[in-house]
Specification:
Strand order of the largest sheet: 1-7-6-3
Structural class: alpha+beta
Shape: elongated
Largest sheet: 4 strands, mixed
Length: about 240
C-alpha cells in the first residue's frame, strides 16, 4: 500500500507556565490534538503540503483558505467570562512574508466547543509555509500550552502548519518526476490511501471534490505551466517548516 511520507504525528504534552497555566481536566495542558487529518480531527493535519492547483482554468487563485482544529477540550476566548472564540483568538503567520492572510471568521464546528473552524482572507502563499496560531483558554481560564516554533521535527501544541507546492504529491517540499508516479497510483487504485489525511487531499488536483483520471491531465498541465502561475516541475518550498 502506498503511504504518503509526511511529518511524524506527535502529541506534545508539556507543563504550562505559572500556577497551573494551561492545565485543566486530568492535569493535561490545553493543546491541539495532532492526529491523522481525518473527519472530526484537525484537518488538514499539521505539516500538510497542498499539492493541488494554485489557480483554476479561469486563473482564479485557489488554495487552502480554512482549517478545522481539534482541541483536547472545550475552548473559549481568554478575556473576562466564557466568551465564544473569535478571530482575535487566532493568528496567521507566514515566515519571511510580511503580508500574510488575516483571520476573518472563527466558529465552533457543529456546535462542538472543542472543534473550531478557522477561515482566512485569501489562499495561503504558494511555495511557503503558513501557520495558524491559537490563543485560546479552557473553561477554567487556563491558556493553551505554548512553546513557540519548535522546528520541523515536532507538532506544536498551539499551532498548525500548512505548505503549498502544486504537484508535490509525496509531500517532500519538491515537485519531482516521482510525483507523477505517486499520482497515478493513488488515482487508479482507491485502496492506496495516504498515511495522513484523505485521498482527495492529494490527488483531487482540480479541487472539484472528486478523484478522476481528469486530475492526472490537470496535474500534467500544472507541471508544464499550462493554465497556472508557473511551471511547477522542479518547484521547491522556500522555507523550512516552522
Amino acid at each position: 500500500m502506498f503511504r504518503i511520507v509526511g511529518c511524524a504525528v506527535l502529541l506534545v504534552v508539556c507543563m504550562g507556565t505559572g500556577d497551573g497555566a494551561g492545565v485543566g481536566e486530568g492535569d493535561e495542558p490545553l493543546q491541539i490534538l495532532h492526529q491523522q487529518g481525518l473527519e472530526g480531527q484537525t484537518r488538514p493535519h499539521s505539516g500538510y503540503i497542498d499539492p493541488r492547483q494554485d489557480v483554476d482554468t479561469a486563473m482564479t487563485p485557489q488554495g487552502l483558505q480554512s482549517c478545522l482544529i481539534r482541541f483536547n477540550r472545550d475552548v473559549y476566548g481568554c478575556g473576562d467570562g466564557l466568551a465564544d472564540v473569535s478571530p482575535d483568538d487566532f493568528e496567521m503567520v507566514e515566515p519571511g512574508f510580511h503580508d500574510p492572510p488575516h483571520i476573518v471568521d472563527v466558529s465552533y464546528a457543529d456546535g462542538d466547543r472543542s472543534y473550531v473552524r478557522v477561515e482566512w482572507s485569501r489562499p495561503i502563499t504558494p511555495k511557503r509555509w503558513s501557520t495558524v496560531v491559537a490563543y485560546v483558554c479552557d473553561i477554567d481560564g487556563n491558556a493553551i500550552d505554548s512553546h513557540g516554533d519548535l522546528g520541523s521535527s515536532e507538532d506544536e501544541p498551539d499551532r498548525v502548519d500548512f505548505g503549498f507546492v502544486s504537484c508535490d504529491i509525496d509531500q517532500n517540499g519538491y515537485a519531482s518526476p516521482l510525483d507523477l508516479f505517486r499520482m497515478r497510483v493513488m488515482v487508479n487504485n482507491p485502496d492506496n490511501q495516504p498515511f495522513q489525511g484523505k485521498r482527495n487531499d492529494y490527488v483531487d488536483i482540480d479541487r472539484d471534490g472528486e478523484v478522476a483520471p481528469l486530475d492526472i491531465f490537470r496535474f500534467r498541465q500544472l507541471k508544464s505551466g499550462i493554465l497556472t502561475t508557473q511551471p511547477w516541475s522542479g518547484a521547491l518550498i522556500e522555507d523550512r517548516r516552522p
